[in-house]
Write a structure and sequence with these properties.
- By secondary structure, this protein is an alpha/beta fold.
- The protein is built from seven helices and ten strands.
- An eight-stranded parallel β-barrel has the order 2-3-4-5-6-7-9-10, surrounded by four helices. It has a two-stranded antiparallel sheet with strand order 1-8.
- Strand 4, helix 3 and strand 5 form a beta-alpha-beta unit.
- Helix 3 (101-115) runs parallel beside helix 4 (132-145).
- It is globular, with a radius of gyration of 17 Å.
Length: 258
């Protein structure tokens, strides 16, 4: 039996589990107030928003993180999202297991103290079995620091199955549409519900949005974020909302069944 199978052979997400958005990072509230307001809309099904990633990083924190002090502009913006019932995650860069443990925990504590986060998004997470113990140690410690912490492991590809036991959700694809449209899914994911997986795809043309949504459902991902923005010239594709934001919201928002 092969480790991967074509996306079309993956069972579709059940009708009672519509897709939701996982927002990997948008620009600072001063630069993108409209984007922050859009996330407050009642018809936008947001699963989580990552704080401190890319364009949401504090000044001077190019690689992401909470910064050296609370951001006076992000504090009220985050509070409004929380009041709307949106889960807030602090961005932590694992650097594929190379990040100093104490440094990682210090950033996590800052997120907890300043922004009252609901959990953490662990970026650049390893995928191999050898790194499982180290990742387990990190996740266990974070959950000891924050009761009921929601943990998202951002692998960007399918990891070995053991990682599913560590987190609430795994990002099993993060990349361009050119790769996503030919992507495959690991067979072990069929043993888990769609809510356990997320796909983040940039460069999705408007005319291929339906196809992208079908791939996500076929591969069993319950959380997505698709955008027509690209990473060309080292741009952050997540900083600005997609040009077809209203359209994609209408296709996966409340009342939409598949």
């Amino acid at each position: 039996m092969s480790y991967l199978m074509p996306s079309g052979q993956r069972r579709a997400a059940p009708a009672e589990a519509p897709l939701r958005f996982g927002v990997p990072g948008i620009a600072h509230p001063l630069l993108a107030p409209g984007e922050w307001s859009e996330l407050l809309r009642a018809d936008v099904p947001v699963e989580w928003v990552v704080l401190g990633s890319g364009g949401m990083a504090a000044a001077g924190e190019a690689s992401g993180g909470p910064g050296a002090r609370p951001d006076p502009y992000q504090l009220p913006a985050v509070a409004r999202l929380r009041q709307a019932g949106v889960r807030i995650l602090g961005h932590l860069d694992l650097r594929f297991g190379e990040r100093p443990f104490a440094e990682l925990l210090a950033e996590a504590q800052s997120y907890i103290n300043w922004y009252k986060v609901d959990g953490f998004s662990l970026d650049a997470c390893p995928t191999d079995r050898a790194a499982l113990p180290g990742t387990r140690r990190t996740v266990t410690t974070l959950r000891a620091m924050l009761e009921r912490a929601y943990i998202v492991l951002v692998h960007g590809a399918h990891p070995c199955a053991g990682y599913a036991d560590l987190a609430d959700q795994l990002v099993t694809f993060c990349g361009p549409w050119s790769a996503y449209r030919w992507s495959q899914v690991s067979e072990w994911t069929a043993d888990h519900p769609p809510g356990r997986f997320c796909h983040l795809v940039h460069g999705v043309p408007a005319q291929h949005l339906d196809e992208a949504l079908r791939i996500a459902r076929w591969q069993g991902a319950g959380t997505i974020y698709f955008t027509d923005r690209t990473d060309r010239d080292e741009a952050d594709p997540w900083e600005v909302m997609p040009g077809y934001w209203d359209e994609i919201v209408s296709r996966i928002g409340p009342g939409v069944s598949e």
